[in-house]
Specification:
alpha/beta; Rossmann fold; 2 domains; 49% helix
Length: 217
């Protein structure tokens, strides 16, 4: 049996933390190791408990969720962070990804989708939403077009699909390989390029000329 995914909940509203706790606690795949009501407290508890994944509210007074995400990722880059917000404003979500977040959840979506999504993030299988992918490619446009010679042809194909927002399952279907094989390829790609998540891969793909913004619009 796999070890549970250890989660830290961060929100300045007690009722919001309670709601997230109820949703996550219903699935045995997760273990809640702590709760924080502010950015500084989130930093302290991350160091104390070393969670696998953090549910991070954006709109907190003082140090907001975006700044807390940035600081946590600088100190603990392996920790995965999912921002949780009442707004579907792409600007806020895009900023969260720029700070290092791996995913986001809108508080009013169906709760039965939460756990599956969090599991996907924890296993690096959460696809990048299309509107976010487009913004990433546009934001990080550079004149560099040189491709990295270390990537095999198959790895380059997978890199392109990741940049376009495909999930591991969808990439497997496109290439005629198993989802498990895709996951292993992704691990190799991330290690080769010294990157930590799909958002960084999308940025890399555009900077090196593997894809253009028009390809996913």
């Amino acid at each position: 049996m796999a070890a549970p995914i250890r989660i830290l909940i961060v929100d300045d509203h007690e009722l919001a933390r309670k709601a997230m706790r109820m949703i996550v606690s219903a699935d045995a795949a997760f273990e809640i190791v702590g709760e924080a009501s502010s950015g500084p407290e989130a930093l302290a508890l991350t160091e104390q408990w070393m969670p696998d994944l953090i549910l991070m509210d954006i709109g907190m007074p003082g140090m907001d969720g975006l700044e807390a995400t940035k600081r946590i990722k600088e100190r603990f880059p392996y920790v995965k962070i999912v921002v949780v917000t009442v707004s579907d404003d792409v600007t806020n979500l895009f900023e969260a990804f720029k700070k290092g977040a791996q995913g986001y959840l809108i508080k009013n979506i169906k709760t039965d989708l939460w756990c599956n999504y969090l599991k996907a993030v924890a296993t690096d299988d959460a696809s990048i939403p299309k509107e976010i992918a487009v913004r990433i490619l546009t934001e990080f446009k550079t004149s560099t077009t040189r491709k990295n010679p270390e990537l095999t042809r198959r790895e380059q194909e997978i890199l392109i699909f990741v940049a376009k927002g495909y999930s591991n399952r969808e990439i497997g279907e496109q290439l005629g390989i198993s989802e498990y094989t895709v996951k292993n390829h992704l691990k190799n790609i991330l290690q080769k390029l010294h990157l930590s998540n799909r958002v960084q891969l999308a940025r890399y793909a555009y900077e090196r000329g593997f894809v253009g913004a028009e390809e996913i619009e």
